Amino acid sequence: MDFIKYQMENHIGIITINRPEALNALNTQVLIELDETIDMIDLNETWVVIITGAGEKAFVAGADIGAMSNMSKVEGRRFGKFGNDIFRKLEMLPMPTIAAVNGFALGGGNELAMSCDIRYCSENAVFGQPEVGLGITPGFGGTQRLVRLVGTGMAKEMLYSGRNIKADQALHIGLVNGVTTKEELMPTVMKLAERIASNAPIAVRNVKRAITNGFLADLDHAIMIEQKCFADCFETEDQVEGMAAFLEKRKVTGFKNR
Ligand code: CO8
């Protein structure tokens, strides 16, 4: 692959968007490779996925403006659907995903970060949906996910004004869970990923499923979804081991994802 790097270690997969000369802007080729990378993820062995950007300046500075500049309406629709399908696939991965935002996260970059479960950023990160200044709307889910993450008032201000915000404000409005120095970003995110990966993988996935499926359901239905996710854990070896370890006052010998 030319524009995506993927590495896997200790059940943690790291996707790096690797087009630093264009601040990791998403053209069709980058999106195709991202799609292929997501398809390649070993669903049994990968317990957390991290996504970040290569280079010093950017997570992803958006969809590629040059590539979009001559698009017709039909091509725009096709490009929007292509990106949306990939971001949705990322969002629906069964294991938790974390965006390590190491710089600009603009337009499609912010939309990519928002398609992950959790976001951490470095102090130099800048977030925004500048599309209206380019004569378009966000096209990879920005109008929908930003509202759900930070509420309608702040989302509308960002989306209508196209104004960027810095890391401290992103933290303030809940767009990211934490801000670190540039150097500390990956160690911090890795530590969180390791902590998540030390828990029973099926239980963690069932939590994700309960949240994802329950979030937009009415509360009665949502509680039923949680009940099923809870009950399903009782047919796993990891539940037997997790509870036995507690009762026997010893450490878990290592969850098996079974
Ligand atoms: N697309 C293409 N190239 C880009 C992009 C981009 N989004 N962002 C940066 N680059 C390129 C620059 O053109 C430049 O290339 P070159 O060296 O060949 O001239 C290189 O990256 C470095 O960029 P700068 O020199 O501009 O770096 P600065 O540090 O001066 O500025 C900024 C950094 C502020 C991030 C600036 O590059 C910028 O404003 N970039 C554009 C940000 C933006 O508007 N992003 C939103 C794009 S629209 C979008 O994402 C819509 C998503 C949904 C699409 C759905 C379609 C249907």
Briefly characterize the structure.
The chain is 48% helix and 16% strand.
Overall description:
The chain has 258 residues and is α/β, with parallel strands linked by helices. It folds into 2 domains: 4-197, 2-enoyl-CoA Hydratase, Chain A, domain 1 (Alpha-Beta Complex), CATH 3.90.226.10; 201-247, Lyase 2-enoyl-coa Hydratase, Chain  A, domain 2 (Orthogonal Bundle). 48% of the residues lie in helices and 16% in strands. The chain has 11 helices and 10 strands. The protein has helices spanning 28-40, 65-68, 73-91, 108-114, 142-150, 152-161, 167-172, 182-197, 201-215, 219-232, 237-247; strands at residues 4-9, 12-17, 48-53, 58-60, 97-101, 104-106, 118-122, 126-128, 165-166, 178-180. It is globular, with a radius of gyration of 19 Å. The mean pLDDT is 97. The site of octanoyl-coenzyme A has 24 residues, from helix 2, helix 3 and strand 6. Residues 22-23, 25, 61-66, 68, 76, 79-80, 83, 104, 106-108, 130-131, 134, 138-140 line the site of octanoyl-coenzyme A.
